């Protein structure tokens, strides 16, 4: 049972890592709290996190704006859009300001794993 758990964690970490390559490090710490309380069943459930982007926005946007320069904010938005698209989120492309809020879906998963 332990080996299955370890293998599962390694697999999840690999998936999360592959989807987080372009996220600036300045944005990662902004999402720890909001993502643990957004109601999604798993940290790697990016489709769920992306669907709740508007709810996360009000909590994380000020942090991202303060922690990251405009170039890194744009990179974070691009990474979020790619992550949501890869997860099968079909609710339409997030607006630029909402995308920063969605970023936590991937960021927290990487920090925890």
UniProtKB/TrEMBL annotation:
Organism this protein belongs to: Pyrenophora tritici-repentis
Lineage: Eukaryota, Fungi, Dikarya, Ascomycota, Pezizomycotina
UniProt record similarity statement: Belongs to the RBT5 family.
One GO location term (cellular component): extracellular region
Predominant localisation class: membrane
Residues involved in heme binding: 45
Domain of life: Eukaryota
GO molecular function, one term: metal ion binding
Residues in the signal sequence: 1-18
PANTHER family: CFEM DOMAIN PROTEIN (AFU_ORTHOLOGUE AFUA_6G14090), GPI ANCHORED CFEM DOMAIN PROTEIN (AFU_ORTHOLOGUE AFUA_6G10580)
Protein name, as recorded: CFEM domain-containing protein
Membrane association type: Lipid-anchor; GPI-anchor
PROSITE patterns per the UniProt record, alphabetical: CFEM
InterPro entries in UniProt: CFEM_domain, Extracellular_membr_CFEM_dom
Cellular localization per UniProt: Cell membrane; Secreted
Domain CFEM stretches: 1-109
Swiss-Prot/TrEMBL keywords: Cell membrane, Disulfide bond, Glycoprotein, GPI-anchor, Heme, Iron, Lipoprotein, Membrane, Metal-binding, Secreted, Signal
């Amino acid at each position: 049972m332990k080996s299955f758990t370890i293998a599962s964690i390694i697999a999840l970490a690999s998936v999360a890592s592959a989807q987080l390559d372009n996220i600036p490090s300045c944005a990662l710490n902004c999402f720890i709290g909001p993502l643990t309380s957004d109601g999604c069943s798993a940290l790697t459930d990016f489709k769920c996190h992306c669907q709740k982007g508007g709810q996360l926005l009000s909590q994380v946007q000020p942090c991202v704006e303060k922690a990251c320069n405009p170039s890194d904010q744009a990179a974070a938005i691009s990474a979020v859009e790619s992550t949501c698209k890869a997860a099968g989120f079909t609710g339409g492309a997030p607006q630029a300001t909402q995308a920063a809020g969605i970023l936590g879906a991937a960021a927290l998963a990487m920090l925890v794993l």
